[in-house]
Design brief:
Elements: H1 2-19, E1 24-31, H2 51-64, E2 70-73, H3 75-80, H4 82-90, E3 94-97, H5 110-128, E4 134-135, H6 149-155, E5 160-161, E6 202-203, E7 208-210, E8 214-216, H7 220-225, H8 228-240, E9 246-249, H9 265-272, H10 275-288, E10 290-292, H11 294-300
Parallel strand pairs: 1-2, 1-9, 1-10, 2-3, 4-5, 5-6
Antiparallel strand pairs: 7-8
Amino acid sequence: MVFITIPLFAIYSFVVSCNHQPLTNAISFDVEHWHSATLLADEITDPIDYIADSVDTVLSLLQRNEVRGTFFVVGELAEEYPKIVQNIVDSGHEIGSHGHTHTPIFQLSKSEFDQELVTSRNSIKEETGVEVSGFRAPNFSITKETSWALQSLRSSNYRYDSSVFPTKTPMYGVSKAPLEPYIPQVSKPFVEDQNRTTSELVEFPLAVLDYPLRLPIAGGFYARTIPVSVLRHGISRLNNQGIPANLYFHPWEFNHDVQTDEPPIHKRFISFQGIDTLESKVETLLETFNFGTEQQVLEENGLLEPTIEA
């Protein structure tokens, strides 16, 4: 019986793999100064700037794996380092907005946030010629308390947002938000609008598994500390449910030179643990799964109209 079962199982697995079209997952990078991260901003007294080396490391990683990603860029940084941002564009990657000053929405009024959206988009366009379509809030700060920000994004003609972390953490998150990309209802922003159209703002949440308890696997601290085997299992599980995984990282997380003893030990652990091994982990994921830009994934899933290039 064993001799029959094993070959039949192998044949079945081969047939399934031949007929299964792998999902494209999204990989993105929040381009900001390492010392502007929430846990580090008030702890670093005289920071050294590593933005150029950090971005170069990420671009090389993506190039050798022939992957295009999305880079959510802080507007002020685009003004400060236009050549770096232009290099990202010239390498074939998508550019989105990460706000203008890297200020979490928790700390902004509606009028201040509206101005951030306009200013960051204008700064990026002025430096690169690119009209950004997507937005990610610093510190994933679109939550139940700041859900009004989605209407600001609609009014500013952004096509999609990628700020909702669909599980509650001590710093951010929405406990029961959808795990898959969706078009939010205007009155209930963390509920899918079943009467959706591709002209509406789309939300692309970060990757979270739906076990009895939701488990984040999106990137950042989670990817740096979770074994790569668990990350692979998590992405596979989402893909088997028809959900594209949405991963995020920061270029500075690929640069061990940013590590410093200045912050308290708990902030050092959250900010720096796993930096030395992150590049090899991400390389493994890029070799195992299909990845692309956020806009590409949303277009493939019928949530955005394809962009017509001039």
